[in-house]
Amino acid sequence: MFAARRTVNLFQKRAFSASAINASKVAVLGAAGGIGQPLSLLLKLNPRVSDLALYDIRGGPGVAADLSHINTNSTVTGYNPDASGLRDCLEGSEIILIPAGVPRKPGMTRDDLFNTNASIVRDLAKAAAEAAPKAHVLVIANPVNSTVPIVAEVYKARNVYDPKRLFGVTTLDVVRASRFISQVQSTNPSGEAVPVVGGHSGVTIVPLLSQSNHSSIAGQARDALVNRIQFGGDEVVKAKDGAGSATLSMAMAGARFAESLLRAAQGEKGVIEPTFVDSPLYKDQGIDFFASRVELGPNGVEQIHSVGEINEYEQGLLDACLADLKKNIQKGVDFVKANP
Ligand SMILES: NC(=O)C1=CN([C@@H]2O[C@H](COP(=O)(O)OP(=O)(O)OC[C@H]3O[C@@H](n4cnc5c(N)ncnc54)[C@H](O)[C@@H]3O)[C@@H](O)[C@H]2O)C=CC1
Ligand SMILES: O=C([O-])CC(=O)C(=O)O
C-alpha cells in the first residue's frame, strides 16, 4: 500500500518537473494575419508551449478566444495595442515570433516591402528589447535580409544584443526545396534534404543541390529547379493574385522552427535548422548575417555550419547572393541609424 502510494508520488513528481521544465511562453506579434493565425493554431497544438500570447494591432483577442477552446493544455491570451498590451504580451516570453507586416502583391519584390515593414519591425523590436531582452526572436516579416539587421541594431542600441538569440526564419526555403526536388525525382519529400544558404529573397536564396541526394542533376533540369526554389515565393504571390503571399506553408515552417528551438531549449542535442543569423562565415567580406545550417542549443545558436563543399555553378550563385545580401543588410542598418 505504502509502496503503491510512493510510486504514484514519484510519478506525480516526475510529471510535475517535466511540465515545469517544458513551461514555455511563446509570443506571436501579428497573430491575426494570414501567417499569424495558422501559426498560432500550430503552436496551440504543440505540447511544449505552455502559454501562447497573441498580439496584433487588430484582432488579437478574437483569435486568442477562438484558439483557447482547443482542448490542449496551454493558455492563450490575446492583446491589443492599448495600454500595456504589447508589453504584457512580451513579458516572460521565451520565444517571440514576428510575422507582423505587409505581404507582397504581384510585381513586387520583397525589398519593396521595406518602407512599410522596417518601421513595424523596428518598433516591435524596441518593445521586445525592453520587455523580454533574453527571448529568442524569430523574424518572419520581409524583407528578412534587412529586418533581421534592424532588430540587431535596435538591441545593440539598448545594450541587450545577443547574436545567439536572433533568427531570420528561412525554413520555408528548405521546406520548398525538399518538396520541389521530390516532385522532379518522384521521391518522398520527407526523405529529401537540400541545404539552402544565403538569404531570403530571389538570388540570395542559394540551394546546394550538390549536397542533396540528387547531386547529379545538371543542365536545364538543375537550372529550372534552382530557379523554382529561389522564386517559389513569387509562385504563391502570383496564384493569390493580390491577396497576399505564402501563409499556410509559412505557418508550418515557422512552427517547425519554433519547435526545433524548444526541443533544443529542453535539452535535445543535435537539433539543426537552416536560419539567417549573425554569422562569422562572410564577415571578412563585410557581410554580418548569413543563412546556413545552425545547431541550436538552450541559449540559441550553438554552432554555425559552414557552406561546405560546393561546385563551380554553386559558387556563381553564392557570389551573386553575397553582392545582394551586403546591400540588403546595410539598408537595414542604415535605416535604424537614420530612424532610431
Ligand atoms: N520569412 C518568410 O519565409 C516569409 C515571410 N513572409 C512575410 O510575413 C509578413 C506577414 O505576412 P502575412 O501574414 O501574409 O500578412 P497579413 O497582412 O495577412 O498579416 C500581417 C498582420 O500583421 C499585423 N500588423 C501590422 N502592423 C503591426 C504592428 N505594428 N504590430 C502588430 N501587428 C501588426 C496586421 O494587422 C496583420 O494582422 C509579410 O511581411 C510577408 O512578406 C511571408 C511568407 C514567408
Ligand atoms: O514571397 C513572399 O513575399 C513571401 C515569402 O517570403 C515567401 O513565400 O518565401
Automatic annotation (TrEMBL):
Pfam families: Ldh_1_C, Ldh_1_N. Residues 170-335 form the Lactate/malate dehydrogenase C-terminal domain. This is Malate dehydrogenase. The keyword Ion transport does not apply. It catalyses: (S)-malate + NAD(+) = oxaloacetate + NADH + H(+). The active site is at H200 (proton acceptor). InterPro entries: L-lactate/malate_DH (IPR001557), Lactate/malate_DH_C (IPR022383), Lactate/malate_DH_N (IPR001236), Lactate_DH/Glyco_Ohase_4_C (IPR015955), Malate_DH_AS (IPR001252), Malate_DH_type1 (IPR010097), NAD(P)-bd_dom_sf (IPR036291). Its EC number is 1.1.1.37. One of its GO terms (biological process) is tricarboxylic acid cycle. Belongs to the LDH/MDH superfamily. MDH type 1 family. The keyword NAD applies. GO terms for molecular function: L-malate dehydrogenase (NAD+) activity. Homodimer. GO terms for cellular component: mitochondrion. Residues 25-168 form the Lactate/malate dehydrogenase N-terminal domain. Coiled coil: none annotated. Keywords: NAD, Oxidoreductase, Tricarboxylic acid cycle. Substrate binds at R104, R110, N142, R176.
